[in-house]
Amino acid sequence: MAQNVTLYNLLISCPGDIKKEVTLIEAAVDEFNELYTETLGITIKTRHWSKSSYAQSGGKPQALLNEQFVNKCDAAVAIFWTRFGTPTDEYGSGTEEEIEIMLQSGKQVFMYFSDKPIPPSKINGDGYEKIQAFRDKYKDKGIYFTYSSDEEFKKMFFAHLSMHFLTEKRVSETANEYRSELKLLGIDETGRLTEEAVVCPFVLNAEISMKEYITSIKTMYQEISDMNVGGRSVTANTFLAGFTSPVDIDEDEKEFITAAAEQLECGLSDFFFELGNLNKDTLTSNPLSGPKLNGTSEEKQKYWKIKRLHETISKALEWAPVEKAFSGMNCIKLAIQNCGKAIDEDAEITFEVPKESLLTLGEFPKFNNAEMEYLLTDCDMSILFGIEGTSEYIEYSESEQNGRTPYGARPYGLPGYVPDYSDDFTDEIKDVFCYGFYSSEDKYIVKLKVDYIKHNTTVAFPTILFVKNEIDEIPYKITSMNNPDVVEGCIKVKS
């Protein structure tokens, strides 16, 4: 997963005779990053003219280098051996200028002088004198060190690097700057985030409500009543009649549709179930796709409208007890927000609700076996009771590292056997409402875990919470992997 880190730029400044040490510096920085980037959120990037500069005109070489990357560095390491470097307009060498820029800016400079043996071919009297003079300039300031071997330099530099970047103050500053900042928010009736939790009427997240079902069914009744295709006439072609059979609406379907019409006070025309001369091909009809109908387009249309009406009424009757069971209930919607600069993981939210105010799973509406089967097999209860994501917050499932497994009907081998769905229903409800409920005197302690939450991100709770009586406020605590502190807060509740 992505991680926020604090980046420090380290300038490597040295004349052209320093080569091996540059490689050792790169290795030390790599080791530092390997050890501390993930654990402390600190990383160092080296900058050197050979890899950080680019061709640019319109200025003096050293001034361009300063602008390109020197001024942006947080610290520098400078090394001298046999050469002092090429003079600039203001200083004895580019390395000296870079050192002075860093020191004048109050930035750290690691300065080293090599006492390794000098091959005769590399002896430069003028360069050596300049180095000694520069060395004497800083001898009383305690900002440089000497070494006599590559191994000594490597150990010394890594120790100095670690001491500087791993000071308690720096680590603390980094941790405070790049850390999560978690809090609870409410979601109002319109789906907008609020600083308060809002008690609002509970509405199931269904594709269609009972009211919409009834409106649709009444419209279908009227459309069919207006379709008069006439009654059946005698088949003229006796040859064709041997390969076809008349199509009629089943008597049970007629009784079902008629009874529903009476309940809805929908008048049926005298010719409501008449289908004219509609017939079906007995030779080519497919049991899966339905009968191959022969007749006028209006006759066929009326037949399928009646079939859809029957299906819609059946679905409405299955849905009705579910919607009725939750009518008049109230709920609150909550979300956890990370407004910090770092991701967080394994966040556990603990909050308190008065017992008389919270409806627990044990007080969930009761359903008969057929209704439980319908809810398990035809509905997705994580959607019915869940909080849908918006542009302001994501759904709980998007924060889960291992998403929930939807209910799968168990295979029951015996034909005609109707299983008891009570245990399956209880398990599914507990899975959908994935809170921990704990009783404590006059309160319920409720816990919820959020696996992963990015910075500047809000995650909705998995489901609504049903409330029975008025709640004034909800005290909460949040603990998480990447925040050493326990976040405590209290969200007001607006009725």
Give short descriptive properties of this protein.
3 domains, alpha+beta, six-stranded antiparallel beta sheet, Rossmann fold, 14 helices, 495 residues, six-stranded mixed beta sheet, elongated, 35% helix
Sequence-ordered SSE layout with sheet pairings:
Blueprint: E1 6-13, H1 20-40, E2 42-47, H2 49-52, H3 61-68, E3 75-80, H4 94-104, E4 108-114, H5 125-137, E5 144-147, H6 150-165, H7 168-177, E6 182-187, E7 193-194, E8 197-198, E9 200-201, H8 210-225, H9 238-241, E10 244-246, H10 251-264, E11 279-281, E12 293-294, H11 297-326, E13 330-338, E14 344-354, H12 369-377, H13 381-384, H14 422-432, E15 436-440, E16 443-453, E17 457-460, E18 465-467, E19 473-480, E20 483-494
Parallel strand pairs: 1-2, 1-3, 3-4, 4-5, 8-20
Antiparallel strand pairs: 6-7, 6-13, 9-13, 10-11, 11-12, 13-17, 13-18, 14-16, 14-19, 15-16, 19-20
Helix pairs in contact: 1-6, 8-11, 12-14
